[in-house]
Structure formats: C-alpha cells, structure tokens
C-alpha cells in the first residue's frame, strides 16, 4: 500500500520549508476553529506558496502574500454568498453526499483548502463525527467526493487521475512543474522541475 505523503514529496523534490512555522498553524487553527490535516500542513510547510503543473495553487499561513488564512476566509465568504436553494438534484451536494446543511467555513461545513486556475475548488469536510474527507467542485457546478487524505488526493492528481469528477485529469508527463510564487511586487515567479519520475 502506498504511503502517499512521502510519495508526493518524492515527486516534488526536496522540501524547501521556507515558511514552516508551527505558531502560524496554531494561530490559523484557533481562528478557524478546526484543525487542518497534518499531511496538508506538512506539504504546505515543505513547498508553499507554490503552483503545481501550472494549475494547482497552495498558499501558506505564515506569509503576508498568498496567505492561506486570508484565502480560506475570502473563499468561504464567496461560496456562502451563492444561492443554493434552486439547484438541480444532480448538482446539489447536500443530496449527492448526504450533507445536512451546505455551509462554508463553519465547524461542520465545507472548508476551501486549495483551488486551480481551471475553476476547481477543493474542500475539506471536517464534520466532528466522521473522518475528514474531500469534496471537489469542478468550476461548472459538478461535485465529486474523495474519501482519502489530501496527500493521496494530490498524488492521484499529479499522476493524472480524474480528481475533480469525470474527465478532469490534468496530467503532464515528465517531472512535476513547480513555480514559487512571488512574495513582493518586485519578484517574479520562479519555475523549476521536480525529479524525473519515469512518466
């Protein structure tokens, strides 16, 4: 059985840990009122703020620019403003996945944790009575559920599986393309590639 956290890190290359700061995570968890998964924290500490394969962006709680806490709060607010009462049954995540309510940024609601420039948003479902799981909205009203860790989701995303519903693969052969996001107005994105992975 694959151990997904080291498998993802093997694809991304050596951890950078440029902004790793346990206090920043403690502050974020206290502000949000939930605990984000350890594998998610480990990957963000190792690489974020970063864009992977030109699409998936990861922010970090210890940076002023590309700040994870700001992004989560802004995204949850924007998703909360959508009118959800007139959805078709095949587009209503409450009916599709047995959610008792559809809320964002609440204790038992959906927590946006990353997104792509293709319009996809990844949500952590952190209900008290279940193990955390992931919902992905594909940018066009379609939803998909993944009962797996963030590390497993990211691994499967990077190897080209459909990880935002049917026909959503974003596979790029060869090494993973990483791009460090600029931290000031004067900086430029810094692209590089992960190790060769035989794909």
TrEMBL record:
The lineage of its organism: Bacteria, Bacillati, Actinomycetota, Actinomycetes, Kitasatosporales. InterPro entries: Knr4/Smi1-like_sf (IPR037883). This is SMI1/KNR4 family protein. It comes from Streptomyces kaempferi. It comes from the Bacteria.
